[in-house]
Amino acid sequence: MHQSNIVLIFGSAPDVTEISKWNLSFFTSTVAINNAWQVTPNWNYLIFPEDFPTVRRPELPVGSDKKLITADEFVIHQNNFGGFIYAGGTMAFTAGYWALGALKPDIIAFIGCDMVYSVENGKSSHFYGQGCADPLRNDITLQSLEAKSNRLMALANKLNCAVVNLSSMPNSRLTFPRLSFSDFQEMRNDDEFFKNQKQLLDLQKVNYALTAEQELGYLVPSGRYWEKINNFDPAKLRLIDDIWIDCFKKIEMSQVI
């Protein structure tokens, strides 16, 4: 069996602090999103958008092997997967597509990217306190986080990559199969994991959705789709989202591990 290329992508949900207790050498690469680099020093890549404040970015010493991934890099990869309009304009999905294109993993594991922002009973929305619920903003690319999640999982599958959510939070907007880190470490080989996930995918619907995207032609090469927002029809995008919603059967743990 070949050595698995496993990428961890972590965001800023409260449970992301769990990774400070993990042996991150299990992963081939680790990708922090925005402020999440503060959770552990053991990250390889930090990805953030153009408007991420400079004061929140780490200062890397000369000769550091850590890399900062900006729009100069991730927009190219995002466009190769159809662009932000179809992929969803928030960093969890952007990080996923960048990792698919740049790191070519066998498995992508997410944590801290559930996009659920409950602040009931005094709970924090992010590991550092209360933050901006960016994925819940009024944005035509984010009308269905579940559809965008299915899309990422489907396109990863087309590249022989499985996707999993290691979150311990009770709820998640990600549709990826859920696993604990301990179970993830003990799972069967990644080829079997991938094949079992593939069986849940309706390839006909995936191709139908991709064809609909191509026919609609909503691509902004710069990645700054908000500058041309009036050119896009939310209703037509919702129709495509509906196809993505239906492209996977309901995922049960026993079906993918």
Written description of the protein model:
This protein is α/β, with parallel strands linked by helices and 257 residues long. It has one domain (6-256). The chain is built from nine helices and six strands. It has helices at residues 71-80, 84-87, 91-103, 145-158, 181-186, 190-198, 203-216, 234-245, 253-256, and strands at 6-10, 29-33, 45-47, 67-69, 107-111, 162-165. Strands 4-3-2-1-5-6 form a six-stranded parallel beta sheet. It is globular and about 45 Å long.
| Secondary-structure content class | alpha/beta
Count of helical stretches: 9
User: What percent of residues are in strands?
Assistant: 5-15%
Distance, first to last CA: 17 Å
**Helical residues, percent:** 25-40%
Task: Write the element-wise H/E pattern from the N-terminal end onward.
Answer: EEEEHHHEHEHHHHH
Compute the number of strand runs. Answer: 6
Domain count, please report it. Answer: 1
Query: How is the main sheet built?
Result: 6 strands, parallel
Global mean pLDDT: 88
* Quaternary state of the chains: single chain
> How would you describe the shape?
globular
* Low-pLDDT residue spans: 253-257
